[in-house]
Amino acid sequence: MNNEQLGFGTRCLHVGQGPDPATGAAAPPIYQTSSYEFPDADTAAARYALEDEGNVYSRISNPTVRALEERLASLEGGVDALATASGMGALDAATLVLAEAGDNVVCASSVYGGTHAYLSHTAARRGIEARFVDTLDPEAYAEAIDEDTAYVHCETIANPALVTPPLDEIAEVAHEAGTPLFVDNTFGTPALCRPLEHGADVVWDSTTKWIHGSGTTLGGVLVADGSFPFAEHPEKYPEIAAPNPAFDGVNFAERFGDRALTMAARQRGARSLGDQQSPFDAWVTMQGVETLPLRMERHCENAMAVAEYLEAHPAVSWVSYPGLPDHETHDLASEYLEGGYGGMITFGLEGGYEAAKGTVENADLASLLANVGDAKTLVIHPASTTHQQLTEEEQEAAGVTGDMVRLSVGIEDPADIVADLEAAIERATA
Predict the structure, then answer these.
(1) Which of 295, 303, 289, 371 lies closest to 333 in space, CA to CA?
(2) Of 228, 255, 288, the domain-final residue
């Protein structure tokens, strides 16, 4: 039975892994090595010329990391993947090979603050313009796209606005303009959403979050399905579809076909910038992936229970959770998300900014820290932390308000999460 015939939960356990051929070990070995011996000089030369895909240096590829890449590519429905040191490393590796000075990126306004800052300031230093548009309006994307648009970007569940954009429509708009759609699937995870099935060409995840699930290990992944015709746009995407001067004229689209983007990102992002994931981190992440479907089911169940509790709380002015029928993108979330609506909730306090800060400070069970997707419940005040670097106008466009509390609902007993919130809100609003 090939991988495509296996169910999602089975692939979480088996893809990229088998008995170690050298020892029979059931668990994948951690290949903790910087480099690899070549059998002969000709093989060494072929690997440096990208004619042989054997290992050269662990900054480029590593067997343990490769096992994780194969598994995540399968789960997202892609043909290949590149595992990176963080989610931002995946974003950077893709941007490096897709965009250059004079290009622009059209991005949904409702995105993670780090992504917004990367596009607004880091990419800007490379001469790449960021154009932020209404997350839910395909026409806004269409109006912003021009011949210099390198890619269109959005999130499956926006951080922290928690809106789900119309992926199919945005993909259609991007493709009409000859531009790939690049989607951050961190909040959705492949357990709930696979954007490549909805028109996206490239997906990235912060594996630090739900994919790993324990709050101990940084990582990211870039996955492509090979559907975008880079070979038809050599002038627009020279790193991928034109003779690459960094590799003696290798044309990645010609040599690697549907793996062109991930291979270019590997050689230019990981190899040149050091964006690669470490073998140990990849090994630990593989253990987390094994329980991803089970954890996501519990995250979703708990989040719905907590959202319904918050809706009825007199000190809570509003609650945003895609699973609630009155959520503005509930219908879209129901269309694109399978088996649940994710583990994230945002809500506002009647007491405003200070009440929101007080709530996160007074939580006991929920940890006040800058992360999401842990098995434990996490809480933060976005306006003063994760989105602090945005202007007031940019915060508003991203869906961040001063009274907002962001809650990453864990897999604890839901009654305990509710009791913790009850006490925290009471202390903050007394």
Answers:
(1) 303
(2) 288
The total domain count for the chain is 2
For residue 281, CA distances in Å to 20, 215, 284 come to 19, 12, 5
Q: Do 241 and 251 meet the contact criterion of CB atoms below 8 Å apart? A: yes
Q: Indicate whether 10 and 158 sit together in one domain.
A: yes
Q: Give tens-digit pLDDT for 152-206.
A: 999 999 998 999 999 999 999 999 999 999 999 999 999 999 999 999 999 999 9
Largest distance between two CA atoms of the chain: 75
pLDDT digits (tens, 9 = 90+) for 235-276: 999 999 999 999 999 999 999 999 999 999 999 989 999 999
Return the closest-CA partner of residue 417 out of 341, 263, 310, 265. Answer: 310
pTM exceeds 0.85, yes or no: yes
Burial tier of 389 (Cβ tally within 10 Å: 0-12, 13-18, 19+) = middle
Q: Which amino acid is at 194?
A: R
Question: 321 and 343 in one domain?
Answer: yes
Residues in the chain: 430
Asked whether the bond before 160 is cis by omega within 30 degrees of 0, the reply is: yes
pLDDT attached to residue 10: 97
